[in-house]
Amino acid sequence: MWHGQRYPRWRSAGWLLIAAVLLTVVVLVSAAWRPGSAAPEPGGPTDGGSRWSSLDGTGATVAVRVDEIVDTGHLMLVNRDHAVADEPVGPVVEAWPTVPVAGSVWLEESALEAVGELFAAAREEGVGALHVTSGYRDRTEQARIYAASDTAFAQPPGHSEHQTGLAVDILPVGVSQSQMAASREGRWLADNAWKHGLVLRYPDGKQDVTGIAYEPWHFRYVGQPHAWFCQDSGLSYEEYIRFLKDSGGYRTTVGGTTYSVLYQVPRDGIIFVPEGREYLVSGDNTGGYVVTVREP
User: Fold this and answer.
1) What is the C-alpha to C-alpha distance for residues 279 and 88, in angstroms, rounded to an integer?
2) DSSP-H helix ranges across 131-172
3) Cα distance between residue 75 and residue 129, in whole Å
4) Is 115 within 8 Å of 107 (Cβ atoms)?
5) Is CATH 3.30.1380.10 what the domain over 90-221 is classified as, yes or no?
6) Is the pTM higher than 0.70?
7) What are the backbone angles phi and psi of residue 194, rounded to the nearest 5°?
8) Is 41 a catalytic residue?
9) DSSP of 5-63, one letter per residue?
10) Which 3 state secondary structure label does DSSP give 93?
11) What is the domain partition of the chain in residue ranges?
């Protein structure tokens, strides 16, 4: 049984024809990604959003202004080089009683749904009791934690994923952070979180890329197929965003659902979305937008 498919705020572009110009696909990208294969070679950066990468060569596109789209924010890159707004990317809700928590924990709605499904899968497989120890933090709370932390394990206020509401710290009950990687629960989470749209945000051996030491307890909601891609390729999230910029996107099937992932940089405030198909849009916090298309 496949777990973890979720499609928050999927949009259909049909109604946008009232306000936008119907365009024909003029450029096709030949890059294709298949489960289990090696990571594709970069194919060249997207030309300012002026070309549409349909990947499968079907259908028409619609031009939309980025200030008119529903930006989920789920794929924004947040680190020391890319700051985050003081507000979460979407409404945050109390995590309890959806999942066990330590203290008061709040999460963005899609992230909480994902963690709830992850915990349910853990229970079904007999994994030990898990609980969430940290979720959304405002700037004041992040500043307090940063001041009291080893900077190898914390970002300064304004640069922490916890301020988005998409990041979550998970520990087994009775297991410390230093024991997490070697624990059965820690290993299970590392192998299975992706199935529910979550990535291990700070993998072992990637500190030079992420700027943060290995944190086997810190997960980040990104959704599918992005979580699968990072898991299958071994890329950190920084490396994944770089791959999207260099390649323009990819097409894959995860759990029986086919996706096209398209990276665009707006030109004159415009990006292109598929006409008549479901999609999500998220800014990446570096100037680009990722359009994730769920194929019928």
Assistant:
1) 22
2) 139-147
3) 29
4) yes
5) yes
6) yes
7) -60, -30
8) no
9) ---TT-EESGGGGGTS-EEE----------TTSPPPPP-----TT-S---SS--SEEEE
10) strand
11) 1-75+243-296, 90-221
Structure tokens at 54: 């349909």
Half-sphere exposure of 243 (CA within 13 A, CB side): 20
Strand partners, 12: 278
Q: Which two tokens mark 154? A: 């914390």
* Helix segments in the chain, DSSP class H: 109-124, 139-147, 177-180, 184-192, 207-210, 226-233, 237-247
Tokens of 173: 């009950």
* Angle value at C-alpha 76, between 281 and 167, nearest 5 degrees: 115
Tokens of 220: 């980040």
User: Catalytic residue among 215, 238, 275, 295, which?
Assistant: 215
Per run of 10 residues, the mean pLDDT along the chain (length 296 residues) is: 38 40 29 36 36 54 94 98 94 97 97 98 95 97 95 95 98 97 98 98 98 98 98 98 97 95 97 92 98 90
